[in-house]
Each structure stands twice: as C-alpha cells, then as structure tokens.
Specification:
Elements lengths: L2 E10 L2 H12 L3 E3 L5 E6 L2 E7 L10 E5 L4 H14 L2 E2 L10 E4 L5 E4 L12 E8 L2 H12 L3 E4 L3 E4 L6 E6 L10 E7 L5 H10 L3 E2 L10 E4 L5 E4 L4
Parallel strand pairs: 1-4, 5-8, 9-12, 13-16
Antiparallel strand pairs: 1-13, 2-3, 3-4, 5-9, 6-7, 7-8, 10-11, 11-12, 14-15, 15-16
C-alpha cells in the first residue's frame, strides 16, 4: 500500500521552449509524448513534465525547484548558464542570501543553491519546495503521500528525504494560496496498488477531490490539506 512521488508537473504556455530551457539547464534530454507534453527524467522514478495550458502565470509559484551546486564556482556557472538560456534574476523578498533566485523564461521562480553537503548526491535538482502555512503539518501529509520520511520538522521549515533524487521541502510563507498552482506534483500507487484505494486513503488524511475541468481521465485530482492540487495516477 502507499503512493510515491513520480512527476513534477509544470504548466507551460510554450511546452517546446520551456522544456528546452530546462533540458539545457539540467543537461537532461527532453522527450515529447503523444499527449503533447514533454518529459525530462530526473531519476528513474521521477520526471519533470511540461504540459500545455492557455492560462498565463499570475502570481509567485507556491511550488519551485532548488538546484544543487558542487562549489561556489559551480553555483556561479549554473547561474550564468541559466541567464544565457533566458532566465532572469527576481526579487521575492529573499534579501541577502547565499542562494540565487531566478525566473525561467515563463516566469517560474527557482533557486540555485550554494554548496550544501545534504544535497551532494541528489543530482541537478536538490529539492522540490512547497510554500506552507504549517510546514510540520504539511510534511506529515506528504510523508504519507510519497513514502519519504520526515528528517527535519520545525515551525518554519520541514524536509522529507528520498532514497535518491531531490528532497521534498516545506517552507513557511505568510501568503495565502489564491489560484491553481502552476507547478504541481503527481503521485502513483505501486504496481500492486489501486488508484481508488489510495485516493480514499489520502482523503482520510485530509485531502479532497477537486474539479479542474479534467473530465473523464484515469487519474484522480486531489488537493492536499493546504489546497495544493496534485494527481493520483494509475499504479506503476
């Protein structure tokens, strides 16, 4: 029983251009799918998936990526490469910090971190970061949704550690959620599980069903305990 994190899904006005930016930045091949989406494989179990949408980005994303670096020189090189590819610096009130905040060509915020020992083996993506009103509570929910253990839990910050690939981290923010998230997560039951059973398990933990106009699809769209949309896919 249980579900695991399998996709980071990014709404895109121009799927080809945006996936091309991230493919070049992360040095990962972009693989088009028949559905019109484009996939980048971060680990054997985790993809970044770019899907076409018509709605423009309106507010700061509540889900973003942190990129890992191996040294100060590597951090500077990643920032320089990102800017050459079309990223721009953004000020989201971070102040003087050792990491660099950028936005991709469609305005999606991301951070290039200074070297940190805990991210030395994650690959190019150090963490998937969710804004949270209550990091501890949201971390407990996502531990159940992903199977990742909570390794740090404080009032301002919580962290879930995977067996490989990026961490899942929750950071306290004062801003309330106002629109559908432009970046969301997909989880999937293991091969011997059932989507309906796992959906009901997550509902019992506080998730709720939401209708985003998805129609008749084989996955289920839920919102977590703070309203962040995510999908429960078919077993795999």
């Amino acid at each position: 029983m249980g579900t695991r994190l399998c996709n980071i899904v990014v709404d895109s006005a121009d799927v080809t251009a945006l996936s091309g930016f991230w493919s070049a930045l992360l040095a990962l091949p972009a693989v088009p799918a028949d559905s019109g989406e484009v996939d980048l494989t971060v680990t054997p179990e985790l993809d970044v998936v770019f899907v076409p949408v018509s709605e423009p980005k309106a507010v700061k994303n509540r889900v973003h990526l942190d990129l890992a670096s191996a040294s100060p020189q590597d951090q500077a090189a990643i920032v320089a490469r990102a800017r050459e590819l079309g990223a721009r610096p953004v000020d989201i009130g971070q102040g003087e910090m050792p990491w660099v905040v950028l936005a991709d060509p469609e305005g999606n915020e991301f951070c290039v971190l200074e070297p940190r020992e805990e991210y030395a083996a994650t690959g190019p993506v150090a963490a998937v970061v969710l804004d949270a009103a209550d990091p501890r509570g949201l971390a407990a929910f996502w531990a159940e949704a992903t199977g990742m253990p909570v390794v740090r839990a404080h009032e301002e910050f919580a962290s879930l550690r995977p067996t490989s690939g990026p961490y899942l981290e929750l950071v306290k923010v004062p801003d309330a959620k106002t629109v559908k998230n432009r970046v969301h997560l997909d989880v999937a039951p293991h091969a011997d599980g059932r989507t309906e059973d796992e959906m009901r398990r997550l509902e019992a933990l506080g998730a709720r069903r939401v209708d985003l106009g998805q129609g008749d699809v084989p996955w289920v769209v839920l919102a977590d305990i703070e309203g962040n949309e995510f999908c429960v896919l078919t077993p795999r």
